[in-house]
Task: structure prediction
Amino acid sequence: MSPGLAGVATGFRSFARYFNGVLGADAYAKYVEHHRAAGHATPPLSEREFWRDRTDRQDTNPQGRCC
Amino acid sequence: MAGTADELAGATRKGGPLTADPQLPPTGVDEAVREAEDKRWTPTKIALWAAIALLGGVAWVMLAIVRGETVNAIWFVFASVCTYLIGYRFYSKVIEKLLLKPNDRRATPAEYKADGKDYVRTDRNVLFGHHFAAIAGAGPLVGPVIAAQMGYLPGTIWIIVGVVFAGAVQDYLVLFFSMRRGGRSLGQMAREELGVIGGTAALVATLLIMVIIVAILALVVVSALGESPWGVFSVGMTIPIALFMGVYLRYLRPGKILEVSLIGFVLLMAAIIGGGAVAGTEWGAALFHLDKVTIAWGLIIYGFIAAVLPVWLLLAPRDYLSTFMKIGVIVMLALAIVVVRPEITVPAFSEFASRDNGPVFSGALFPFLFVTIACGALSGFHALISSGTTPKLIEKERQTRFIGYGGMLMESFVAIMALVAAISIDRGIYFAMNAPLALTGGTVESAATWVNSLGLAGVNITPDVLAQTARDMGEESIISRSGGAPTLAVGLAHIMHQFIGGTAMMAFWYHFAIMFEALFILTAVDAGTRVARFMLQDSIGNFVPKFKEASWRPGAWLCTAVMVGAWGAVLLMGVTDPLGGINTLFPLFGIANQLLAAIALSVCMAIAAKRGAFKYLWIVALPMAFAAVVTITASFQKIFSPVPAVGYFANNAAFSKALADGKTSFGTAKTVAAMEAVVRNTMIQGWLSIIFVVLSIIVIVTAILATIKAFRNSTAGTINVDHEDEARSSRVFAPAGLIPTAAERELMAEWDKVPGELRFEKAGHH
Result:
């Protein structure tokens, strides 16, 4: 890959990472990281369980969206 | 000033002294180093800021003083961006240094309450995008369009100056104070700082204000979709698209949010293009050609169902779609304005700037311009977001300036772009689109005659132009499409077709704009209904404890029905209003939003006073006083003005008298039923204004009393108790702003050398 193309690829990847962050798509990765760092004895939730729990908690804890 | 940042005169601080872990590098840049760096003015830095100031100054001169035939849109971009940069670099730093005094050695809630779910340290740039997406919606796109009736200059000045001294200050302060309180909500802070009476008034006012805001946002959607088969089809399709995305995320590929958003985006584009085809067929036009009342009922039923359905099915996926569209659209609009640079023919001050009987919104420039443009200059609703999710995600205290103040500057820029889009279209078209049906008469001929009769300089519109514009947009008619959204859509189509696609793409761009505005608004309607429902459940729960259980279905359904019924009633009132709903109701939206801002700023003032920052209290008092004066004056005029076009009760009296006199038509109301509707509506609107203003005055007065008490305490040497969470030592470091300073980079390099296990050790957690 030419350096120019590699630069574009890196740029695109960091943009995708940023966009993922803004959308909140990296929430599971951050949860797992926290879980490991906090040294819990129990295994972390699976990805499916985590997202289920996340949206279900929003049911009882709604967040406003602005006008 | 001597001493460290968190040692504030007259306030106690809970917790012991902040002790840094000797094994870790410092968790904040040394104060002296930071100050020295700030004060070191290198020639490059001086040249840069001189250039920004000069460019901004020239741009303001072009907008405000030079009176040519036209003004180029690029000057709006320069004037706003340069002013924002100066406000951010200088004024927000004054607030930081003198009033808030953040301390990076203190851990934020995201650190000391870290749970991997709600409290998560988030990269500042990501959080900036996240916060911006949460605060920016349809508001900044609609208000400036309606306010363009008075010319471009009043709105431009208020949006740019207002955000620097009021809107961004409010967002920054609320974010900071909520962060210091573990992410507590505005309502909880009001209760703590203002006591039971002030706190309860703030809660009730917030609840009512949310109802009004949701109702009027819904009215904007209904006005945009009425008699528009294309719009109804494509916006209606967002529901199955969101349901599909919800199922996809729940069962097929959990967590693949970017992927599903891309799929959703493609489907959305297909829905817009398909909408054109469907509206072109006979059955499509017949099926999706709905009048406003039907759409309003549809929206009310939808609102109830959406608020009781689980979040994962509809609300969460549409939120992703909305965020995705929001960032895309705003970047695209900015690019298009910079590339196309449209010439603006609208005058700086229009003929209506000095009158109080404009057809788009009634009332004089002061105070009504300042309530018509709420979002983008000063939006109280942001206080609910800044004291919600964002403070729980922030990594370092110093980042609140970038996220709170900077995020609001971004929203203000969106408002400026919406204004540019709206004023880039012909003024004749603007008034034909935004005046109520009762004035334009509904046909191209009657509308053209009416617009030309206004005697506006340089305006001479023909029925052909109006008909051609409607055809270009793929609509049957554009007459009296009030509410701001359709005008913005025409403006956007006007700019975008010169950028991508030519005239053939205009109808697509028009419906693209309607689509994203409807998307933002529907998300706000759902979320607003849910939040309001929980607030109601919580309040009733104080008397009937069962209601506090969120999982108790009958309670949830009943409270949802009450909230939907409340905003639905206001929405129907607006849709059926013979005077033209937007014209009479939009001021109420602005007043509600800004009263919330006055409440939020009052709470901030009481907190700042308890921190002992009396010398710099003007930073909060100034915008609070302005918001209070504007909204209270506007409310009083709405209540007491003898001019029927302005005062609700004056109008009520005029119509009641006409009915009593046995007249069968009066003003714009052509039947007795319409006249009775006006009598009913003005009475409700008048009482709503009274309730709002009374509640807000209670909150403001209790806040002023709390401020005076704090001052007395501090002069008497009594200690003011603040409600901040206990200070804990931070164990992480991150830069404060977008670009790290030299000192921050040095410190980051030190932190990079720290072994991982040391960094992630959580002292005393779990």
Summary: Chain A has a mean pLDDT of 88.
